[in-house]
Task: inverse folding
């Protein structure tokens, strides 16, 4: 009596082939789900970046003081300004001439920012800000419009340089009133 126990090579090859087909089918079902998850995560990341930047800009603008104006490029008489340098939002402090980064460096790891101040729909005491999040290739990934209330607005008019369109208005500046000297 020949009572051998074991698996033949042919049986092993057939089981391996069937197992490969089953695992391939399972992987094919889950691969689109993982791809969609990655795309969704990326989209949420871009939106969060836009919201963080919008919140920081809103905070800076909300407490600005002085005469407000929009301009394309600030000069030495512009006062304190908020704009974009190298795709990053900065506050340019007039007294020192130094740019202070408004948003944490980590926010910019994969993105750059474009900023426009919109004069259209202007209401006294408010600044209209358009923030665009671009990828490294300059393709727009997200856009948000914010209307920020200027808490220290004293009835001053918000001026826009002559001939400046909304797409050119890249900086929001405040000129500090001259200190009053009493004799």
Result:
């Amino acid at each position: 009596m020949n009572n051998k126990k074991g698996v033949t090579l042919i049986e092993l090859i057939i089981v391996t082939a069937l197992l490969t087909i089953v695992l391939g089918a399972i992987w094919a079902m889950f691969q689109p789900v993982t791809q969609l998850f990655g795309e969704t995560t990326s989209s949420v990341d871009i939106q969060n970046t836009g919201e963080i930047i919008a919140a920081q800009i809103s905070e800076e603008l909300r407490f600005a003081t002085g005469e407000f104006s929009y301009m394309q490029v600030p000069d030495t008489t512009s006062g304190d300004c908020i704009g974009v340098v190298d795709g990053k939002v900065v506050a340019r402090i007039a007294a020192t001439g130094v740019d202070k980064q408004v948003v944490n460096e980590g926010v910019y790891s994969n993105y750059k920012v474009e900023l426009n101040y919109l004069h259209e729909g202007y209401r006294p005491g408010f600044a209209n800000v358009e923030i665009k999040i671009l990828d490294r290739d300059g393709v727009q990934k997200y856009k948000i419009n914010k209307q920020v209330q200027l808490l220290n607005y004293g009835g001053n008019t918000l001026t826009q340089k002559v001939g400046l369109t909304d797409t050119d208005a890249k900086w929001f500046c405040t000129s500090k009133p001259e200190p009053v000297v009493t004799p």
Remarks:
- The CA atoms of residues 116 and 167 lie 6 Å apart.
